[in-house]
Fold:
Amino acid sequence: MVTVRGNALIGPDLKFVEDILIQIDEKGIIQKVSNEQKTAEYVLPPSNVIIPGFINAHTHVADACLKDFTYGLTLEEAVGPKGVKHSTLNSKSEEEKAQSIRNSLDMHVKNGFTAFVDFREEGIDGIKLLKEELNEYPIRAVILGRQYGDNNLADISEMSDGFGFSDVFSIDEDIMRQTKDLKENNQEKIAAIHASESMEVISESLTRFGKPDIEKICEYPFFDFVVHATYSNENDLILLKKNNTNVICCPISNLYHGLKFPPIALILKNELLLGLGTDNTFCNNPDPFRLMAFTLYSARSNYQTILPKEILKAVTVNPGEIIRRQIGQISEGFYGDLLGIDLNSPNTKYSKDVYSAITMRAEPSDIVFQMFKGKIVKWKDQK
Ligand SMILES: [Zn+2]
Structure:
């Protein structure tokens, strides 16, 4: 049993409690969260706060080798079928792609992520490549694959956590029937899709199907979440809510590509679960602190006011609930993925409250303690 003691944000509402004891078993699962006064192996001082490890709810980790090459291009020029991303990555060797993935994983771990949800390209080979690299890192990947070449969906499902479709135009009745069957046979499988990322996508969907892409996607009630919803309106969000399909937004990626800031306040008002992701590594570093601060600041200039605590939930509790895994909160039965943040560093000192300090002030250098499945990744200032 591993024991950790200190002030912490616990449960699904990230409630601040003082001096609690977290007991984690050999499998890395939290057995007990209590105020028992026992000694602990790791005791964090009162100036620290223990929080759940961050979850990056949407990534494409293989394209780190294209950092900043697409700045100034349109979405289509950057990531379209004939765009820079796919044409360049196709010409890279397996080792170059592996190095690119390793760079993304290094940043994820260093910046405090203990999990990420990746839309993996290149079918079975792409999934295998990421899995091989993952073994070396204290982080969990939830891998969502897609059809590629002659790989079929059943093989993809076998190798991965589910499906991450590129857009509404990449699916058809046959693919959707297979997805539904595979999900029914294995409740853990996840289905997700990019949606309403740009006005062009919505216009093309109107031309092809006579309805916006989110309306088309909602004809299949088994999607766990859509990614982006940048140009969604309230009608789209009501439909998603009815289908129990939640939303992952990637605001830094949207602005990098010259697109709008997503309607996050409206998503929260419609009581959808909101997750946040950094999206392609080529357009920004996977850094939860930068993602949270950027989101809160950009929201303000888009006439949206969002509580810092809601944004902290969007990189911890909510993605865990959206993907139905026991991660993202400090609760019994959940994995012991923990971070200790220094609330008395030059960055965080004097901030209004713990949620503001973490979302708008802290940086990766303020992480003093990091644990993945009950095992130490980082521990400094031992007291
Ligand atoms: Zn994406």
Observations:
- The first strand starts at residue 2 and ends at 10.
